[in-house]
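Subject: Sanity check before I submit

Could someone independently write out the structure tokens for this chain? I want to compare against mine line by line before I put it in a report. The sequence has 268 residues.
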Amino acid sequence: MPLIVSENSQHGNSWPEDVLDDDFIAHRVASGRKHAWLVAAPKSGSTWLTILLEQLLGWQSHTLVDSYDRREQEIDIRRMLMYPDVDLFSIQQHCRFSTATYQFVQRFNVRVILQGRNLWDTLVSLRDHLVKESLVTPICFVDEAFLSHAPDRQMDWVIDLAVPWYFNFYASWFTGRQRGEVEFLWVNYESLFRDTAGQLQRIIDYLGVSRSEIEIESAIHNAVDASTRLNVGRTGRGEEMLTQAQKDRIARLRSFYSQLDFTSIGLG
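---
Independent answer below. Compare away.
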């Protein structure tokens, strides 16, 4: 819905009638600048990757989200007016692919980095996050009653209420790429953990910028002491901690998207 700026006769102000819409904003953003946007599934190590890229790129960084809390992290295009003529890195955002997302990426020539993680490990990490850090998440509504349940019941809650959001997120982006609507560089947590320097090299190659090996190693070193909100970060926890019944429920939800390849998040 565009923001209409018009005359306000009640207060005696005379404003020229104008429409602050996507075209209005796009015309005020330099076309030659570079723009990278990290889109990530929650609990996929995206805070860590954000810090790494902030260190490595040295670009102006900002968020495309107007506010967080429990709301969906959709794009607030007005924020593009804050830095219209500099290379820009938009930090991690849990945003599903949609027509509005497509139009934003195309209009502003945005290079999307899509980050994910083995889904079973993600769910264990999400349960830990809810217990130890915050019950507030855009994925599903979680209140204090969650904390009164035993760990297995908490995991059932996460699977039944959060997994549909995760499949919606991944399916939207994977389908968008399958249809030729969007391109992105896929980065998974496991590869980033095993070979951080190699994955950063992939990213800067994708963005069309050059950084030396020394600069890459320096970015990794500087990110070590930063707060990344990483719980345990060890791969394979989902295999160990989820029951077979829980894995079967995830498999049932996955079956609704049989046309999509989810091997990149650990599901055949």
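---
OP: Matches mine. For the report I'm noting this point. Residues 1-17 have pLDDT under 50 and may be disordered.
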